[in-house]
Fold each of these.
Amino acid sequence: MAKQKRKVTEVTARKKKKLKAAAEDVPGAPAAPPGAGEAPAQGAAVLGTLSPEERRVLERKLKKERKKEERKRLREAGVATAQSSLARRSGAQLALDYLCGWAQKQDNWRFQKTRQTWLLLHMYDCDEVPDEHFPALLAYLEGLRGRARELTVQKAEALMRELDEGGPGADPRLLEKTQRIRQVLQLLS
């Protein structure tokens, strides 16, 4: 067993040396201009001696280095990267779009657990789920089944007990939250 283990470590050590040597022999690849897709002749010869798996690993490493240098060059030039310029939609917007799609009975609507979870977590917050979307959310909750329904009722009851123990509050946001909890409890209980 120990002999076999030693043999495996020797093989991996040889592979690591070979990859390291190949990476050192191809220093020009990351610095090559984006249009030039070929590595130097010396690097190509080394790539030919590598196994397919080793070649993939080396190519990924070189590609990563090229991307890093490209980003660095763009940053130095003061140009924003394409990723940062694209406006990513927030989880809130995605969940509200999901809810609106359900309410409008769109053909391309599909159940998405993450969107439902987001809605269930934030349904009492007026900032996250505006008043204009709350009636649609209540209609969505009517169809809630199984464990999700049970957990929603349990959480609403726990929040209601917590708010009752806190005493009467003059905070209008707290009153709005209480009203939403009562509506959910009436609907699901």
Amino acid sequence: MTTFNLYIGYRFVAHHEYPNIQLPIMSETNALKGKLALITGCSGGIGQASARSLARLGCSIAVHHSSSSSKPKADALVKELTELVIMIGPNGNIEDIPVEMFENIWRLNTGTSFRLAQLCIPHMEEQRWGRVIFTSSVAAGTGGVIGPHYASSKSALHGLVHWLSLRYAKSGITANAIAPALIEDTAMMSNPTPEIRAKIPIGRLGKPDEIASIVALCATNGYMTNKVIAADGGWTSGGF
């Protein structure tokens, strides 16, 4: 059984003082900005949930794990906090996003999509058949709930869709993007706040299978191309 303990103080703990601690930094609101939470047993269920909750309040998290067997869970939590749920929210400040973070998110969300298209499309042209389906986000059209780094990286995919679809349509290749909003059972939406849930008019989060059905539509329909399909429970009223 994992023992959970929590210590919150000012950010004075150096990384090297605790060999099993990793220090992601994230911020959604400023309630605990400038504070450090040392969570022992952070790889356990309560520890992980607490880390996510405090991090959304701007607190830096020291992720502690006590054994080699718990390190994979700790590593996964650090990755989630630093790459997937780094939020400053719609009311944050743009200066809170380091340039390095901005570039990393763009490389992850936009650069890899561009590179994969580069590698795959020549083969699709040879076959005279291909489907390019990008996963965008409603944030590309609304600004979203994470921050400008994420929203702009997803918006860039739309320009890529438009160019690819017009360039390669006559080769039997379609290009579309799906822009979901707030999908349950994903790392990004593992613990959404009531305020985030309230943004969805139908009153619930989307389901992964509901997005998968749109993927299947894009894969089987050869006439639909150059489209960004919003699947957001009625959050937006038109296309992007």
Amino acid sequence: MSVLMCDTFYEDVPTLDEVKREISSIVGLREIKRHLEAIVAKIIDAEKDASGGLKVLPPKPFHMVFVGNNGTGKSTVARILGKLFYLSRALSSYTVTEMQGNKKMKDAKGGVLLVNIDEEDPINSKLVEEIIAAMNEGDISIIFAGTYKALNQYMKFNNDLYKRFSARLQFDDLTPQELATILQKKASNQGEDGLICGFELDPSCSTIDIADKIAVLAPESLRRLLNAHLLDQMLIEARKVAERSGEKTIFLRDLAIGIHSGAQIYKNLLNL
């Protein structure tokens, strides 16, 4: 779904081991994971050089374009990159400020600014000038993210901005099996912020069986449009089914109803 406001994500000071675990936990995105792992390797090499007495200059932050549909992991990867840039001393902060459209640009200096491009909510020329000025000043990494159509439409009218991006990452749509794996990860979160806190998936809810239900009950057009953004509602609907049955266990039949109901809610919401 679109980001409706400008948010800055603050997390604990990262360590390289923690970031490596985050990278390994990403579902899908094999090529992007290789890019992230290559940055980790460079940081490790730089640390070895520094410990050996060599002078190591921090890399300069660079700007990127993330191409992909909603729910494919662009925000997650941006936050990981922010931590990697901080750990490599390319940036002075590991925070990520996420914004869209003409919302006021917060003070993202020192960290990553993630700009979501929406066909229906274009960024005005004044804000583009602010972004270019920030690029010129340095100590910031700016990422433009959106669908191929939205980015292509936007960049062809902003060539001065486009030529400042040095990397492009492609975020492919998630397969039903990848969506099933993410759903299981979400279901395993039993913390206070967990979607089904107090409930658990029955062992019958295998990755293969969940993937089959998603493939059949969630139309491909909807999956391509929202990807992992579909899953929260599906789990919430499945929990409701279990609650009505007086159960604390979500069986595969409950999950199937939740997948269908969650998909239907989004179809109605988006007039599909």
